[in-house]
Amino acid sequence: MEIIIAATKTCQHRPILEKVLQAAWLPYKVIYSEEHPEFFEKHHLKHSPLLLVDDKIESVGMPEIDKINELKARIKDISERRTSTRDENHMIPKNIGTEPGLVEVDVTWGSIQSITAAQKVHTVGELEVYNHHNKGWPIIDARKPNTSGSVTIPGSINIPYTELVERMDELDINNPSIFFCNGPQCPQSSTAIKDLLDAGCPANRILYYRGGMHDWITLGLPVQQI
């Protein structure tokens, strides 16, 4: 659902409407008549502010609280309350120029995943991943290669989530494996875990690193080129 506030820059009600939408956890963007007159001409807009939802005018001026509640009810998934998906997005945080330690993060892609991939499967963080690696235990990169951004956690083994069940015999039978993908909005590793459990893999042999490459990179931890 795309929510747009169409307004002039001098509209006194526009900041109030923004606060109302923010309080309702409703994502939106603002289009100003001074910057995009073609948008106003296309929709025959003559008032400010206007609330448009999926290219349809929902309210002229400040909307009633019933309209805000209706919009809230139409959004069932928290992922739909996020910033709208960009036309060109990137899953992996990217370095900004040559400045070390600064990265650009695309917050618009994917669907927010639960902190728990499945019942009885423990979720771990970076410290556990680090200690796991030091023990020489397996870390599985469950991403498809075309979603990897050409980097991974050092020492990890790539087995795409779509192949894991048929390649279960490659997993360590003596020690648990940590599974990760691109981060909290990426479903690849959680899907892999559910598929493995359905195929009979014991839950105590599975650990879930939900932070994935997103958290790993934004915390400045080392990566390995693929």
From TrEMBL:
Q: What would be one Pfam family of this protein? A: Rhodanese
* CDD domains (UniProt xref): RHOD (cd00158)
Keywords from UniProt, A to Z, are: Transferase
Q: Which GO terms describe its molecular function?
A: transferase activity
Which PROSITE patterns does the protein's record reference? RHODANESE_3
Alphabetized Gene3D superfamilies for the sequence? Rhodanese-like domain
Ranges for domain Rhodanese come to 133-225
Q: Keyword Transferase, does the record have it? A: yes
UniProt keyword annotation of Cell cycle present: no
| Record InterPro entries | Rhodanese-like_dom, Rhodanese-like_dom_sf
| Protein name listed in UniProt | Rhodanese-related sulfurtransferase
Which species is this UniProt entry from? Maribacter arcticus
